[in-house]
Amino acid sequence: MPSNSFSEMPPVPTEFMPASLPPVSDALAKAGLNVRIIDKRPSKVAAGRADGIQPRTLEGTQSYGLTERLIKEGNQMHMAAFYNPIPDGSGITRSDRLPDVTAPTARYPFEVTLHQSAIENIFRDAMCALGNGPTPNGACPREFEHRAKAEPQLSYPPRSIEVEQSIVLTSISLSTDAAELASRDSYPVTAHLKRLSEAEAARLARPVAGAPANSNEVVADGSSVEVEEDREEIVRAKYVVGCDGAHSWTRSQMGWKMEGEHTDFVWGVVDTIPDTDFPDIRNRTAIHSDNGVDRSKMTPEKIMELDWWTIYIIARRLGSNFSAQERVFIAGNACHTHSPKAGQGMNASMNDTHNLIWKLTQVLRGWASPELLKTHELERRKYAQDLIAFDRKFSALFSGKAQTADNSDGVSHHQFVEVFQTFGAFTSGIGIHYAPSAIVDPSHQALATKLIVGKRFVPQTVIRTADAHPIQKARLQAFADELEKPEKFYKKYTPKDAPVDTVFDILSFSTMTKNTGDYTDLSPTLRTHWSKVFMDDVACFPKMGGGRLYESYGIRPEGCVAVVRPDGYIGHVVSLESVDQFDKWFNGFMAA
User: From the CB of residue 299, how many other CB atoms can be counted at a distance below 10 Å?
Assistant: First the structure.
């Protein structure tokens, strides 16, 4: 007889797609929230798929403490090379070499290439390492004691997570009860999980070379695969995030459509280690040629072993919905598809979930209203639309024939480079600009003309007042020349009896110099810890940077207060005399 089990999951069971996994799993696990990640594959991705990490994504992974390992294991790409046909038709020649990243404010002014399996390993290792939480007797390590006091309802430290392999969702349903959907404590999502049979798991373990790059090649519909009849589980959840690719089962179950276009362009992707003397093999390279290779010259002994390959037709499509009642979400290729030529797929997916997870964390902790979750689709749909519009232009340049004497209407080198450089800020992720909303208010932009509300906080080197140690920071920033600042906004939204930095991390930046002030000169409100007080001065060794912070951000000497969201984007800027305006702003999405 089949046996069923039932469980309740406070936050998020997640259907797994590696490109979107990292921010989902790592952020929620570090927040100490209860998470399950299920993957229909019997094991992790072995080869192929995505391999490029853009500068903005590296800034995001730095907040998880993982960028150092990504850079160490990957290959840095600092330069892009461009090749075009030789006029006499005898081959190709290099036309130009340019910086690969053209965004001047990038903290990491390069791309990192590393195959997705290795990237996945880094995040899996990080999730497992979080298991150093409660001691055997249930006590929390010292570094988590303050959270246990501040959040008695979440009095556990970061928890270890392992991906549950060979598990499929066979059905998912969402309550229609308005009160249940609105309740912070309810579990309105019901999901049925089943474990794949050994035979099905063995079939899926076979190599998947040649599977479509943007597809979910394992199984398209969990309800149709062979499963162990006695291994069914019913899960009730607060939220579900479907990160299950372009052929998303979650999207299909919710009745959402992908809207857009298929093109006539057929592309191929290969993962291999070439034996070559090509001079730009270590650089990002775009090659236009008159013709392909003469097939008669491609004998079998010339073909090397391939790790992975795929051929596919480019589709540019956008999901009709990104969420249902802000309880069931989809992210990454599940809600937008495009060509991979600009290296955006994995980056867009990871930043989709990076945008979503900080909002889920705030809501699940009781710090923010569920209304905050509505801003996810608002922000990421517009980004996806911009991405598809860019891809339409960029992929056409790649797929089009090069300009030659016989093809004057072809793609010129000038056209290609112009688009490459013009959209450099967008493709690197550095130039993403969120529109005004409940969490983006640019009404006082004049107070910091170069600290653009809706864009990510630009990294700068600042000097710690206590020990003149130069560091870079990009979290909540409090710019002030005065020693006092109103406390109303953060006390209102901080749990009773909790430390003042439980919800808001206050960082203070002053125009004092190494010789004119001490961190103890500031009021306790502005110096919750000595390590969070900074000055606008150069380091003891000038080559280490520092100084001109106010000038760099366009801030007048009288200062201002800026809010930087947990994902690193600037939400609001107000003057020191108008800090009470934060009350009105935070009221739109925070929970007192």
Answer: 8
Residue 442's identity, in one-letter code, is P
Q: Is 564 helix (H, G, I), strand (E, B) or coil?
A: strand
Spatial separation of the C-alpha atoms in residues 513 and 536, rounded to whole Å = 7
Cα 144 → chain centroid: 26
Which of 41-50, 155-164, 294-303, 347-356 is most confident? 347-356
Residue, of 154 and 126, whose pLDDT is higher: 126
The residue among 109, 8, 92 whose CA lies nearest residue 55 is: 109
Rg, the chain, Cα only: 26
Q: What are 140's two structure tokens? A: 């929390």
List domains and CATH numbers for the chain.
76-102+273-306+400-431 (no CATH), 445-587 (3.40.30.20)
CA distances for 344 relative to 155, 339, 386, 424, 570, angstroms: 38, 8, 12, 12, 23
d(CA 351, CA 383): 10
What single-letter amino acid sits at 31?
A
Q: How many Å apart are CA 481 and CA 15, to the nearest integer?
A: 49
The two three-digit tokens of residue 204, written as one number: 């899926």
Yes or no: say if 293 and 204 are a contact pair by the CB < 8 Å rule: no
